[in-house]
Every structure is written in structure tokens, then in C-alpha cells.
Amino acid sequence: MHQTTSELISWNVNGLRACRKKSFDLFVEQRKPDFLCLQEVKLNSEVIPENDFGYPFRYYHLAEKKGYSGTAIFSSVEPQSVRVDFPDGLHAGEGRIITCEFDGFHLVNVYVPNSKGDLSRLSYRYESWDPDLRNYLMKLRSTKPVVLCGDLNVAHQEIDLANPRTNRMNAGFTNEEREGISNLLAEGFIDTFRHVHPDREGAYSWWSYRNSARSRNIGWRIDYFVVSNELVGSIQDAYILPEVEGSDHCPIGLSLSMN
Questions:
Q1: Domain holding 83: CATH number?
Q2: Residue 3: which pLDDT band, with cuts at 50, 70 and 90?
């Protein structure tokens, strides 16, 4: 059976219009990934770019609140189906999930809610969002392998952020958020970057704009490609592209062999 390798890129652009004024268009033109998933596009329906960036398929899922949240998927092939949010309308209104079904897998692009600096959204996330996401992915997986990507707003292990000790109870590194991703992985899902690079330190995908954090690489790895373990043999590479600027996040990538 003929195998091809597909490249998937995920990027929290922190405002697509702002990112396009920097490096976005050139990056996409040069890289041309087969699948491009964006988070935090911060668009409203009046300002969706007419540009399709060379993709036959594009889909935006925007928040009801203008200039907030929002996700997008671009693909070199048309999906068999597209759905937004969770089934039953759970967690709707913030444009946080797009699911595209392709021949060999479901691609789920997600922008997980931030627990906020005062942790005011932590209980919502721990008691509701994370379990609902896990259940949704498990249900999808019963029909086809799953590729989940996006900004999960959590550093899973101490190796995934520069200063774990001083961030122990801060948003993105609380026990509850870390447990959420542990629970997902325990169900037979794989953090592809750690699968390929189990011990790599200093590998981050987000840096604060303050205190020259990026130039000093004082960062967090909070963006992920997670796959259901049926795809483990298809993982060719998983990587982070910290040299690509334009947002406080950098793009991350996954190379998968496809039949």
C-alpha cells in the first residue's frame, strides 16, 4: 500500500490580522503544510480574510464576542464532514473546537479555555471542560483514529516549563489542569512531542511578552499534537518551530505517514 507523509501545523496566532502583519503569510507560503490549524484567530465575520492561503478547504469557527478566541482549519483535501463545538451544544459560543473527518482520522483543533490569573475558570475547566473533551475524543475514536491539536493551556510536566517551582499553583500548571491532560493520556492518547523527544528540555511553544522571556527562552510548552495510540506507528516526527515569530506562541508540527 502506498504511503505518503502529511505535515500538520498548529499555531495559536494570537490575532490572525496582527500575525499577518508579521510573518504568517510568508510562513504558510514557504511551509505549505497539508493541514494548518489556528487558534485565537480573534476575528469576527466581517473581517475574515478573503485569502485562502492556497488551500482548497478553509473553515473558521468564531466566537460570539468580537475579537475573542476563535479557531480555523485549512486543508489541502476536503474533509468528509465538519462539526463545531461539542455534541449537544456544550461549551458553545466561544469558537473553541472544530472537528474535520478525513479518510483515515478525525482532526480536532481546539483552543482550551485559560483558567485565568485568579483561577476563576479553573473549576469550570477541571469539572466540566476537560472531562467533556476527553469523553468527546473517546467517542470519536470509536469510529476512527483521532489527531487532537491546539493550545491546551497547560504544561503537563515540570520539563514543560522553564520555572516549574515558582509556577506550581499558577494558571497552566495547577494540579487540576495537569491532571486533566494526564487523564486523557491514560485513555490511550499520546503526547507526540514527548513520544519523539522524551527528555528534551528547553522546548517551549509560548513565552510571555514581558521581561524578554522569549529571547531568554523562559517559556512553557502548552501547545500539543496528541494522537490516539492507533496512530503511534504513523508518527514520523513531532517538533516545535520557535524561530517563527508573529505571536507569543510559535507553530508546532507533526509529520504522519498516511496510507
A1: 3.60.10.10
A2: confident
| Per-residue pLDDT tens digits for 94-139 | 999 999 999 999 999 999 999 999 999 999 999 999 999 999 999 9
Query: Residue 21's domain spans which residues?
Result: 4-258
Rounded CA-CA distance 210/205 in Å is 15
pLDDT at 88: 85
pLDDT of 1:
60
Indicate if 204 belongs to the active site.
no
| Tens-place pLDDT, residues 37-84 | 999 999 999 999 999 999 999 999 999 999 999 999 999 999 999 999
Partners of residue 171 on adjacent β-strands: none
* Burial of residue 135, with CB atoms counted within 10 A of its CB: 0-12 exposed, 13-18 middle, 19 or more buried: middle
Helices vs. strands in the chain: H and E counts, helices first: 6, 14
Per annotation, catalytic residue among 111, 136, 204, 239 = 111
Q: Is the dihedral of CA 22, 65, 213, 153 positive or negative?
A: negative
**Total domains, the chain:** 1
Exactly one of 85, 130, 151, 223 is catalytic; which is it? 151
